[in-house]
Structures are given as structure tokens and as C-alpha cells.
Amino acid sequence: MPHTLTISQLTDKLTQGELTSRDATQSCLDRIAAVDDQLNAFLSHDPADALAQADAADAARAAGETKPLLGVPIAMKDVIAVNGHPLNCASKILGDFNSPYDATVTQKLRDAGAVVFGRVNMDEFAMGSSTENSAFGPARNPWDTDRISGGSSGGSAVAVAADECIASLGSDTGGSIRQPAALCGCVGLKPTYGRVSRYGLVAFASSLDQIGPITKDVRDAATLLGVIAGEDPRDSTNVPEPVPDYTAALTGDIKGMKIGLPREYQVDGLDPEVKAATDAAVAELEKLGAEIKEISLPHTEYAIATYYIIATAEASANLARFEGVRYGARVDGASPEQMNRATRGAGFGEEVKRRIILGTYVLSSGYYDAYYLRAQKARTLIRQDFLNAFEQVDLIASPTTPTSAFKIGEKSGDPLQMYLSDVFTISCNLAGLCGISVPCGFSKIGLPMGLQLLGQPFGEPDLLRAAHAYEQVTDWHTKQPNLD
Amino acid sequence: MEYEAVIGLETHVQLRTRTKMWCGCANEYGAEANTNVCPVCLGLPGVLPVPNAEALRKTALTGMLLNCDVPSYAKWDRKNYFYPDNPKNYQLTQLDFPSTIEGFVDFEFGEGTERVRINRAHLEEDVGKSTHFADHSGVDFNRAGVPLLEIVTEPDLTGADMAYEYLNALKAILEYGGVSDCDMEKGQVRCDVNISVRPIGQTELGEKIEIKNMNSFSGVRRAAGYEIERQIGVLREGGTLVQETRRWDDAVGITESMRTKEDAHDYRYFPDPDLMPHTPSEEWLAEVRASVMELPLARKRRLMADFQLPASDAEVFVGDAALGDYFEVAANGAKNPKAVANWVMNNLQAKLVETGGSVADVKFEASAIGELVGLIEGGQINSKIAQDVFVKMFESGKSPAAIVEEKGLSQVSDSGELEAFCNEAIEANPGPAEDFRNGKETALNFLKGQVMKASRGKANPQMVGELLKNILGS
Known about the structure:
The complex is a heterodimer. Chain A is α/β, with parallel strands linked by helices. Chain A has a domain of 274 residues: Amidase signature (AS) enzymes (Alpha-Beta Complex). Chain A has 15 helices and 13 strands. Chain B has three domains: 286 residues, no CATH class; 114 residues, no CATH class; 59 residues, Orthogonal Bundle (Arc Repressor Mutant, subunit A), CATH 1.10.10. Chain B is built from 15 helices and 13 strands. Chain B has an eight-stranded mixed β-sheet. The interface between A and B is large, with 45 and 30 residues.
């Protein structure tokens, strides 16, 4: 069952000649054929292309090549450009658009030898927390297919949790990697802003977006991050910080590490089961030698409002390019303006329209100072809260989500309720930090829950060290959903 | 009541760079439609801009040439509006922290010099070009993303002619700096004019009216002239003016209302999150500053003062900077720089036109022209021979002295030798000699010509004339 392997397990077997990349890739393709009707994780995939890449990887290995991901099948969120493949952002507006270029992360995966395959489901333009906003139907949680996968990178998490791929890439603007990873029982890592190139990531909110890995364990997250991180002259916001060997941080030793618990994160609506699970996880970390202390992030209450102003403002401009003039779907009109209106009216879903309208409003003449400018100031204060906290602690721990996965349709009529579910994940993006979600238990009805750890900018090694140490003393990450 | 006009100009200039502002596509006019395009300048999903270092440098250089400050912090903003030629449906520009601010341009106008203050010169990107066919429209994105500098004046101009002269001066400066080719035909310079009028003596400004769609400097002059008269006419008839944007119809020669303040765009500017602010270092600024060259007006004045050139000659050298540079080397230390100027402007330029070369291709040292003039002034060769010497200099690159020496072209000023030539001429042409004796002055020229011919042009013409008169008169 090669599709159930982690990156490191598969790589070992490939190296020892026990398996070929073709075996592993075919196994993933078979798994997709077997279970994806229930899950809707994949919007599309091209088996012939995937197998051709696998064969090339096998040939390269036979020729003596060694690369960190040689022959490993990795699924891609439908917001990351892969040359010659569809790029829909789970929206109708892109029509039959195929990307004519590779994102930088795609190129890096190819350079590392990966089999880059599949377009996995997401909330339209990464706007949402459940994948219910996909124009192609929600991705379903493999632990209970009546429930949401989380989002926006729901398909990326489902594909990993259901072993339809070995690992995947998602993108995280306010929790879009960590939240679905938590709800599906995977590891999800949001890198520090500037750590991974955004070139080829279709922008939702440019100052918040980062691409990151969703994996079956922490070691895989470290490996995959090591491949996709690094300088890119095509992204001006990319930080030319050297890329360390992240797997070297996985020592299991966190003695003396200081972990903070934010006082302000004891919010209404925090499910007692989730609280109990994360409390237990923190206790494990303490047992491993970490020092736990309470900290304060005084501007926490402003985070969601700040986020929904900045993210929507940026989105309102980022999504202006989708109007049918140069590519994608087009609904004709008598004038360019009418064509724009008709195309965008028909092409965008409700949540995307809601956010474009909100973002347009907060940037409008007369409202800019009251909303956008104040949000930027609040953002600075939120960031400062974290930088102050990191004077006292190495990491910050919290639940990833206030509840486990809810039922499909349960919150879709109430966008504000949906926005509030991002409370623990959103600040990380506003402050430009790194964060990880690791499985930390299951609810009574068998739904996964996640522990979130936040680290300071470029603090990924600490983040991975602590997450890995925790994973070594628990077995949550090894549990698999039953889809048969 | 008498009225006065208050005018400010916004001039868009395409920068001369190898590539576009945010991508590696060629910044090239005239290519087949949509061939200089890539995912970035087409605004495909997922792309990001990367600033063109040469455009940033040329922007700073322009600021320095326009006497602007170049602040240590500039940033990029998105200007949001939908238009089919605008690939991202926002234009990257600089709203409140432009790359250069607060300068001025001095220019000649009428008998004197005027100064217009520059509010800013900020960097932005050009958009594509729409073409409308019978039943559809097309967009060529070759121009999309070409670096565009917007140079905004304060409302310091008071008339259409003054605006025209400012534009000519600005163009000269930009061409001088190598910043832009300023080719109007290629749309490399585009201009919007803000005009208001007010009763003379009133300090507050009248309603500002913006005029668009002029495609030449003379169009700007005509449009401004028309608009000033129109606005004064409205006020004189007791009407009121409202803030609006008007379109110049060049064929008819009138302006027409396009939109009023009420339906002005809300561009929803905000800082571009894809680009970092531009924070030039002291070293970088010093490097740019080192490439600042003398401005055209300053050079003109210096050429007139240092080389005693008439304004028209100085303008020739200002208008063709390379020729001007050449002249300055040639005239360095020359006793008669005006004569050097004539050689450079006439003979040298004619040869360059004939051969299609540039001053860089000239084989001889620039100082050789000064030497040639020295040979003429010192009486070693006459000006006719000098013409031949120049041709040989141009062909061979040899010094004039060497050519004169080699070809034995030195002027014959030895009176014994010349007397022999004169006597021969008189003996051979008794008729004209007789004519001269009988008072026909012009007959002397014929005899002079015979002497010059016999001496193969080397005879000193003044001396020949004197000698002939002496011989025939005695």
C-alpha cells in the first residue's frame, strides 16, 4: 500500500529498491479512483502525466541520481500554477484556463524530483474555512464525509489524510493550511511570510498568503519545507534568508524550551473537548521538558476585524484581473463594462463577491482612513504583541480551531460565524509568523483535533523541533480514517 | 475685467530601458502585436512584479536633472480601475511617496528665462493599446508595463506659448539625460493640461479644468490657447465654470466635456503589497548623481560665454550633444573657436551625413580641427586648400600638418616665386592685362585665377593680387 507511506518511508523504500515511483504513483492513482468519489479532494488529475514523471524519476534513480523528493507524488492546491495544467482556483471564472508557466514552488518540487500531480479542491480563491465555497462542490472530511474538510486548503488536507497522495501543498492566508490539517488529522505548516516564494500562487491577500506543506508527519513537513523555501528573485517580498536543514532540528529534545499560552485565547465558543485535548498536549510538552508560561497578546480581539479588512482590500484588487478580457470564462456584453459585470457576476461565487464588495468598500474614498488605515495600525500592534511575547517564550501554543469539523451546510448561512472560527490562526498571518498544526487527539465521535504552535519569524526549526518531539510521544498522526 | 490663465502640466514620458518595468520583456516600439508579452505583463493569475533597476536609476536621474529631491523612501500603490488595456485592472504607480519631489525647470521664454516648479516626477507603468475594428476591439499588450514617468508641474505657467516652451525644454532635458527618446510619434510623451482662469489680481484659483488627448506639443499649445479663451468667454458672459475633464478634438480645434467632478473615478489607491518600498542608499544616490550631466540651457549659456559663439551655434551643439562634446574638445585652446565651430557644424557634419557615421567614427583627433584652423589663420594654407586637407583628414585620419607636408600643399608666399607666376600669367594673357590697365578691375580676377591654377592652388591669394597690381601698374 505505497500510498499510505510518508515521504521519508517512501524515500527509504525507493532508495532500497523495494518500490518504484511508478508503484507509488499508481497506488495513489488507484486510491483516488477508489475513494475520491466520496471525498471530492481532486478537481482534476492527469494519470498519464503523473506516471510519465514517475517513470522519469525511476530512470533518474537508476542512473544514480539522488534528490530529496525523487519520485514522491505531491498534490497541488488549485491555486498554485503548474505549467500546462488547469489553474481554476476552484472558481468558474477561470473557465478552461491552463497555466502557461510553473510557480516557483512547482519548479522547486520538480528540481527536487517530485511527481507533481493533481489539482486539489479548495474554497474559491482560497476564501473560506470549509471548502464549501468551491465552485465544484465541497471536499469532504475522510473521518466523516458529512462533515467539512476545513479550508481553504481542504482538498490538500483530505488528499493527505485519505492517502490519495504522499503529501500536498496548500496555501495559508488566515489559517488555510493549519485549520484543514487539524480537522483532517494531518500536519500543516504555514511558513514565515517571505520564507516561500509566492510567484505562481494566485493571490488572495498578498501580504498574508504563504504556500506550505500538508503532510502525514512532522518530518515530512520539514523535508517539504526545505525543498520549497528559499530565495526567489521573482518575488520581491521573499526574504533571502538562508534555508537551514529543517530535519536537523528534529532532535526530540525540547528541554528548557519556553512555550507560552495566551491568556486571551480562552474564548467563548472553544469546544471543551478541543480545550481538553490541547491542554493535554501542552502537558505532554511540559513532560518533555518545556517550560510553560502564560503570556498576553492584548490586541487579540481586533485580529479578526483587522484581517477581514486587510485581506478583502487586497483581494478586491487582486481579483480585478478576472474579467474575461484576456483569459478564462467570458460572458459577452455590449461594452467592456457590461462584459466585466456579466463575466464577474456569473463567474464568482457568493463568498468571493462578498469579500470583493467588502474590500472595495474599505478602500473607498472617505472610508479608507476609518477602515484600511486603522486596520494597518491594528496589524502593527498585533505584530508587536507577538514580538513582545517572543521576548519571553520560544513558541506559543493554542488549539488550531475552536471546534472539530462541523457538518457541511451547518454554518454556510452565517459567514460571520464562519469568520470567527479563524480566531486562533489569523494572527499568525497578520504578524508574519510561522505556525504548525499537529494532530493532538480525537473527539468522542472520532473527529481529529489539532494543536497549533506559533513561532517567531524564521523560527521554523523551533516549531518543527517541538512538534516533532510531541509527535514522538503520541500516535495521533498514525491513525487513519476508514473509507471502505 | 482682465483675466489671467493658470496652467499646470502632467507629462507622461516612457523611459528608455531595455526591458519593461516589472518583467524581462523588451521595451520596444513597433513589434508585432502581443509579441513582447509574458505572464507578468499580461496579468496572468499568480504573477508578481519585480522592479526594473534601470528604470529606478533613470527616474532618480530625471529627478536630479529637474532639481528635485530624491527621497530615501518611495513606495508603490495600486490605482484601481477597470479597462481592457489595463491587464491587472489596477495600475502600479506612486501616490504619496513618489521617487522624486519638489524641483524646477528653468527655460527660455520670450526675451528672458522662466522657472516652473516641479511638484514630482513619479514612476508608474504604461498600459496596453486598444484598437477598434468594425465589429470588435483588440488590445496590444506590448506597451503594457513599459516604465512611465509622470512629471507634474505646479500651476506656474501663465499661457499657451509658455506651456509649449516648457515642454520643449523638458523634452531637451530628458533627451539630454538619455532618460527617454521623447518620440511623440511613438507615443513616448503624452501630456494632460490643467487650466483655470481668474481675474487679474485675484489670489485664489479658478475652477480647474483638465484637458486630455493632445498628441503633440503644438496640440497642447492650441488646446491651451483655445481653452483659455473659452473659459474667459464663459466668465465674461456671466457664466460659471465647473471642475471637469475635457477632451481636445485636434481636427476641429475645440475642447468638449468628458466628465465632471461628480462622475470622477474613485481609484481606491492603496499600497501595493507585492512590492517593497524603494529605499535608495546614499551610495546608490551618489552613483546616480555622478552621472548627472549639464542641462541644455546651462550648456548653451556656457558655450556662448566660453567660446563666444552666437546663440544659434550654441543651440546646434546643445541640440546634438555628441557634436557639442566634439566641438568642445576641438575648440579647446583654439584662438578662433567660432571658426572651429563652423568647421564642425558645416564640413564635419556634412561628411557625417554623407557617410552615415557619427562623431564616434571620426578617424582624426578632435584637436586636429583646431590645428587646421591654425594653419589657415597662420597663412600656411588658404581656405580652398583647407577644404581638400579636411577631406583627406576625414579619409585617412592623418593630422592636417602631415597632409600639407606630404602633399606639398603649403601656401606659396615667397614673393620671388609668386612674381614669376604673375609674369607668366600676364605674358600668356595680354588681353585681360590690357583690360586691367584700361581700368577694368574684374580682369584682375581672371589673372589671379590663372596664377592660382599655375600654382595648383597653393599661391597666397592676397599676395598674388597685390603683386599683379604692382606689375600691371608700374
